[in-house]
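Quick question, first post here. What does this chain look like in 3D?
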Amino acid sequence: MSEQRNQHKYSRRDFVKVGTGLVGAALLSACAPTPTPQVVEKVVEVAAQDPWLTGKVPPDATGDFRIMSWEGEGEMRKWLLHIGKFFSKYYPNIKWNLDWGISWDDYWTKLPTLMAGGSPIEMVWMHDSKVHTFAAREFLLPLDDWLTAYPAPGWPDHFYKSQVESFVHNGKQYAFPYDWAPGGFYVNVDLFDQAGLKIPDENTTWDEIREVARKISKDTDDPMKAVWGLGGIDPGWTGGIYWIIKEFGGDYWTADLTKSMLSEPKTVEALQFLRDLVWKYNVHPSAASIQGLGLDYEMAFASGKIAMHYGLNDISFRINEGIAGKFKWTVAPTPTGPAGRFQFSGGSAFAIPKTSTQKDMAYELIRFVLANPDNLPTTAVMGGALVANKDFAEFGLPPASLGISDAFRHAFVEMGSKNPCMPNYHAKYLEWEQSVWATDMGPVWIGEQADVAAAAKAASDGTQKILESLAS
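> Answer (accepted):
Ran it through. Tokens below.
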């Protein structure tokens, strides 16, 4: 494996030379997710020699192979390309179908229902915040035996540690990560220049960020005219604000999952700070204000209405398309809090459901798509993503023509590698998020509840009950 890996060392510049052809192929693949079976000569010899196969699946295998994903058309292009290549080369008689474009909320309702009903789904998209729930309910198969018998190139040492560990439940690997998504700030340089302000860096404090945002914000009582200094922080996304709570010294619960920490003073301080950004200092738009404009936070930034937008690394291409040259922009690291510096780190993966009828083929597909060094540059460039294998970080950087590659590398890759942060996810995290957090903290974020401490106490009581149920 290592020899094959070393034979395919391309630079981003070399890869981009063939980018147009790859995109064209991907578009064709996206138009035809179920390939027409083809006759492949000498397939037996290929199967016997090819390092991506286990040798356990007959090359003339037939049947259906169903895959499910929440990803939309833009993200699916690269996956359809890789998956189509796998089946046309190795199993041309398999009829594969990728059910993609399922909305995020519907996906997490539909998938467990199908699994509980025994539907034969061969491979699924999995998220780090949900894998413990699915693994605990025995909906997924651990990958450890396959990873031992048929190791993936670079696994696990060349993969971001946080992403490997994110999909481990009770000591077993339940999914193979495909990306690494650290968070950072997208910055409207023109608005900063007009205000005579410096672009923030990792040493900038939250108090300084708030003051910078106050100096830039204007006309915030009229969303049509408003410019906000800060945007993109969504307290409804518990994973997405956890790093902020940690920077204030707070937490959701103790490391051993036995005690809620939501009503602890440092946690309440962080929650109060987040609320005040919107409802006291008016430097961050409410969700209702953005929706009233017919935008989301990304497009509000791209429209010039937000000076600093918090987002993940993989939105840079969408951001650039939305800006379309209207202003100069760059990226910057997230700030440091009173308790130190943390940075969001998250990601997604491929997993094999327990109901799979083609388990070995599913592992072969996962390994071929996510560990093959011939595929990873395509995945990174076409997806504008940092793939989980850290050796390919160069391909996930924005094009040099944008002039932000160095800033991007520093803000997302270098700083993100130093301080990766995510919640201590558990088997009832989804239940906690939907029942406790949404119910008790939701009114705080929409401006209906001003007493943050009281809301946090109610949320803490509900959290404690869920934590206690984990041990039962």
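The CA atoms of residues 191 and 294 lie 22 Å apart.
The chain has two domains: 2-174+348-387, 182-345+413-470.
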